[in-house]
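G., the chain you wanted modeled:
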Amino acid sequence: MQENVVEKTKVLIVGVNVNDREYFKESMEELVSLVEACNMQVCGKIEQNLKVVNKPLYIGTGKVQEVKDMAKECMAEVIVFNNELSPTQLRNLQKDLDMPILDRTSLILEIFSTRAKTREAKLQVEVAKLQYMLPRLVGLHESLGRQGGASGLSNKGSGEKKLELDRRRIEDKLTELRKDLEEVEGERNTQRKQRNESGIPKVALVGYTNAGKSTLMNALVDMYLKDDSKKVMEKDMLFATLETQVRKITLENNKSFLLSDTVGFISELPHNLIKAFRSTLEEVKNADLLLEVIDYSDKNYEEHIKVTKDTLKSLGADEIPIIYVYNKSDIMLDRLPLVDGDYIYISASSKRGIVELIDLISSKIYSDYIDCHMLIPFDKGNIVSYFNNNATIKETEYLENGTLLKINCRLSDYNKYIEYVKKV
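Predicted structure as tokens:
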């Protein structure tokens, strides 16, 4: 018996190459991936070269009819534009094309809507969507109504409801959502404060979406925690991870660090999303070290590095030390791993290069560790237990007046227990 196959919404994509923009072709290819990530199907493509974008319509006036004709020819149900459309452009195009219209920003917002799982992520996405909608109400009214029944969109059936939304109701909803978000952010800030007080180094995974950050985190969890329940979801798709996940990685020498997996970056990541996800992205800003994961097998990896650099700068995180982790290098190189200063070439999926990466991380975050001897009185067994769990014990000797430890510990712990330091 043949299964019923739900047909995907057909999409015509439109892009303007302004002044022979670098990476325009790659940007259009990425738009196809974004459409597919939204569970829709590209049926046609139109490109136009312009010196400057046409302010009223985004595309040239004469191009509108061509878009209309091709949409009819390929039976497109939605037209997706490669850049963020202004409220005026959206309104004019909606009127002239008489079809549901999405731009790059609204498409990414749709993907985030379907991917959000936790309460915080759902609140963040909803805030970003309403902020995007607010100045575009007039142009969106008819478009959203048409999109309501289209497969592949997360707001099925909601088009008619959104027709009734006026500015005041959206602003009231935003106020309510921001209040809820502040409560959730307060909980996150409390957790972050506790982590900061622990003195454990913080390492954050950053990079372009689908570069393999979650795969790398799972490789580290598998090797050092050996607990499958601590693994994060990894999937070959754009924006598989929206929620920041933090894991404590404890090495064989008892040194540990906190590793966080963050939302991936993308070219022209909507500003409203960056604002809405600011608390999540604080994990990046507060890190002691960043691991920038790069898909070395992607022909556009250099552009991805540039996008990541620009995004980190916008977050105020561009001064944090970085290790550049070229992932999926087994596709490009015969010999792995390869280490060159702060650059390392690995394969997270096969775990080749993980040990060398840990060595590189250790050289960056454990510089404030110190070798010393401590003589701990027998009635202070809790301190011995503490060092057993939080330092590298090189030798243990039991003397008449206490336990003599030869250890490598954090400088902060050395200063905290300096009364027990013994010169040998």
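Confidence is low (pLDDT under 50) at residues 147-152.

Shout if anything looks off.
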